[in-house]
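Re: export button greyed out
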Amino acid sequence: MNSPFISDVPAAEAHAAWREARAAAGCPARVEAVRVPVGAAVGRVTAEPVWARRSSPAFDSSGMDGIAVRAADTVGASETAPVVVKDFEVVDTGDPLPPGYDAVVMREHVHHTPEGAELHTAVPPYQHVRSIGEDISAAELLLPEGHRLRPVDVAASAAAGVTELAVRRAPIVVIIPTGDEIRPVGTELEPGEIADTNSVMLAAQAREVGCDARVTAIVADDPAAITAAVGTAAREADLVLLIAGSSAGRDDYTARVVAEAGTVAVHGVAVRPGHPVVLGTVTEEPATPILGVPGYPVSAALTFDIFAAPLLAELEGAAPRERPSTMARLARKLPSVVGMDDWVRVRLGRVQDHVVATPLPRGAGVLTSLVRADGLLVVPAGVEGHHAGTEVRVELLRGLAEIDRTIVAIGSHDLVLDLAASALRAADPLVTLASSNVGSLGGLVALRDGLCHLAGSHLLDPATGEYTLPYVQRLLGDDAAVIRLVHRDQGLLVAPGNPLGLKDIDDLARPGVRYVNRQRGAGTRALLDHELGRRGLDPAAIPGYAREEHTHLAVAAAIAAGRADTGLGILAAARAFGLDFVPVAQEPYDLVLRAEDVSHELLAPLWTLLADPGFRARVEELGGYSCAQTGERIR
Amino acid sequence: MNSPFISDVPAAEAHAAWREARAAAGCPARVEAVRVPVGAAVGRVTAEPVWARRSSPAFDSSGMDGIAVRAADTVGASETAPVVVKDFEVVDTGDPLPPGYDAVVMREHVHHTPEGAELHTAVPPYQHVRSIGEDISAAELLLPEGHRLRPVDVAASAAAGVTELAVRRAPIVVIIPTGDEIRPVGTELEPGEIADTNSVMLAAQAREVGCDARVTAIVADDPAAITAAVGTAAREADLVLLIAGSSAGRDDYTARVVAEAGTVAVHGVAVRPGHPVVLGTVTEEPATPILGVPGYPVSAALTFDIFAAPLLAELEGAAPRERPSTMARLARKLPSVVGMDDWVRVRLGRVQDHVVATPLPRGAGVLTSLVRADGLLVVPAGVEGHHAGTEVRVELLRGLAEIDRTIVAIGSHDLVLDLAASALRAADPLVTLASSNVGSLGGLVALRDGLCHLAGSHLLDPATGEYTLPYVQRLLGDDAAVIRLVHRDQGLLVAPGNPLGLKDIDDLARPGVRYVNRQRGAGTRALLDHELGRRGLDPAAIPGYAREEHTHLAVAAAIAAGRADTGLGILAAARAFGLDFVPVAQEPYDLVLRAEDVSHELLAPLWTLLADPGFRARVEELGGYSCAQTGERIR
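Workaround output, generated via the alternate export path:
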């Protein structure tokens, strides 16, 4: 992550340096206060304390439906010696207590007679009377300054006679996308062009924290143009976000532009991802803070969380929003670079009464790692990483109740699992099926280690020619069940029209055929090895045998990009990339689980789904699948 | 809580009965799907799965700034035997990998010579190359149906070539306020009238969960008019909220109106507050669910949370939003009615490493109990209550980090604490000063029991004539510090013009003078007792001595309402209610704390504030206060 141009400032120091630079440049400490009607104030932050202008209730009132009486008139009343009260008034809950009365008797306890109201119990003074000011006393402090208003706060303000509130206006965030190759979202892209997804995301993040977000036109990689855009933005903004392309070259433009327009307080923080951030100010009156956002999408999203969100809360004079957290058991070893705060995205699930955290891919460009994340785990700069099984604190991106209802599948990937995930959620929004792709063998090991509920497997045992079951016996012993998900076709994925005319596995040894393989432990690789063995072919004779991809779709992508001529995979992957498909084998794809979990209520919706003819029909429509045994327990 | 007209249906049964009634009436299970541009989809729920339309990156690209090379050309390069590569291309991060090259060397590792690029390390194929589909593979499931879209989700969708998303439209909630005495917020109220704060609150609650909320005009207490309003509302709404006044009589209108317009599934739930809720449907096509909301504001707010919010999430096909929770130690005994789920509002603070929960007033009319609440604690129907010190699960209404920074003050109430609370928050939005009013003695006991950081006290020891210190020694021993907050005037609060011509404590024994007292343990009551003792007056001779209020402001309110002629209190309370004030004594008001806490960083901002001349000036402007010793440690 090092570059000659930027430094590694620890996050806390970066915050402090930016704060100092903003103060020195004269950036406003708070946005202005405005007065708004209470009904429009929810979500805004109080700019002054709110004192009650009147009491609530504003008068002594009845707390029940019944009759208002004088307590003194009821003295001595009992079951055996009822008292008949002649002087009373009928009241409903909330009615003012009529003058001269000091207590209320519930309707149910009154027996009306021609002589008056017959009571069987004496009542003390002020029974069922809501005193003036019981809820709010005039002149009482209702809300302090710096309080973000919730529905109950505005209702209480209105009840206290306050109809307008002084609040901070929404901070204005102006977002400037830059980069010659960046195109607006929705444009048909030419090769080499990139959609401006960061602006859409940052604007949404700013709106989510209550700001007014504005996105400018995309600015070319030209320092003069960027400087001009920054100047215009700073005049209307409370915070300018200047998005670099993903290029470090362009980060340097950002730093240069900011240095010319004002001051660079920090260029480069010891945070991964997010390292090449620029924190500075634009000096022109009124001075404005500016944040140079790295172009990689995960860096952009986290940079907003780490640097923009706290500043925007400060401009409103409020505490920053806070994510809840939980302790979780780390599913695998997590190495980390010393000297950098490492923000790791994790999936979470409750397996055998432990919340288990499985780290997701860590690249700054892998936005899906944030999409699929249930939590964030920060490995601080001073820590080298964590061992598997360590209990770590995780900031939650999803609620724990949802996480508790999540079926965790680790193992081989199949599109049928995706289809099932979506169908389960559609039937019950509380059910999530989260699958991580580590290959069949990795899944069985994860199941053994208590890290998942289900392992998807299609692992061929070369010794027996049998799928999955021999491995299950070896790794999990007797205490495991196996449910058939599907049968599916495996075959050679080839460019459209099959230009090399490949017909079967034998052709892989042909000179000039570039193969792309799956990783060790993948069922598809085991299938290849089995087929090579049957034919007496030496893996070393297959060009590209050592080149590994981790999913069917990645193999298809490599072929579509022309980096390879063929690879073994499923029909659905070929279709996704417009490739042709040469069938080689049909194989069973199974779900492995602990035997006791077969009847776990968490999994019941999945078994119901597998029995549903509509779902089976949709699976077979994908092509290359057979559902003849779907849902059968085969062990 | 019983009434002849309504029942006590347990909450889970009530949910089930309502669901069944909605299904039977043909209420739509989901709101319609609409297609919106990705940028406008944040906060909405997917109505169908989102599959990637293209890969991201869409091409093999450079992961670094540097040069693209053929890995084969670098074989054998080392520190001692560098290799000069002639065939290369300069690339920036994100650039497409030029055809024919298969690896990238970082700029920093290249030494450009006239012969070419000199490399000191061999590079493996695909080093620093981001493969096509590294983030997203075409045809991959990006998001399931039923997923509430966050900023990263829409950015990933856009990156996957999806520019429009099918989402559920925002559910429409129509709110009907009813009641002859209800007036729109902002109206000058006549005696007996009540501001329509519930509509403001419920509309804000509905918007907070992503709905389109509409409030109708206030409808009079007339079943025909209410029926007409319900019919109109049901035609546009996905859910109708019909707010009763606070009267049970009016609740019956609700049930009657709903019964006529459709079906009443439930009238009355075993939930406190919230009991008289009505759950039903309006039958006219298309059938619409209707919720009869009780008029008491806490009941209204909680009814929305318990019954409306889950239904609205279901209409969107999403999981309901979920509050984080924590375990906390109960500060005092919490009795509860068996047979009712009891929703108790609590304040939270971290004292001596325990999160402590202090129950707030439990009345359905006390909206400030929700305003001041940091959490909600449900005592289930089957439980009789909890002992003090029990560890209970609390749903959080504020973040734990904020709670950790909260100074918990329990004891006597003084407006200077309110002023300090607001000033502290204004200076640093992360600092909260939360005070609960239980009187001086109650505060010292709470401090002893580890339930607070500070106890506000002005407790006169009749034996010594000394304030607070004798009690501190008795209750807390040597390990306590005392900081002077203020001196303040205590006096007799009297109606404007002092119609009874009261001059001092002696006058309280005059016939016809109705006194209102403070509760046992309150410093003001100790002062009265002391003054009575000095004069040899018998408390039994003071009419109203037994009538207790819990705050200065409540005493003032009682006098303002004409329920009493006088009471002892502070000048600020008299001013708040436009009363006159007859000074009786000047007393010190002190803050008591554990000695080791004097240097606790949590309290540092408070000591800074007490030393601030601007703050002292504002205190003295309140009237009746002297800051001559403010901030001095007197023990």
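The domain at 61-130 of chain B is CATH 2.170.190.11 (Molybdopterin biosynthesis moeA protein; domain 3). The button fix ships in the next patch.
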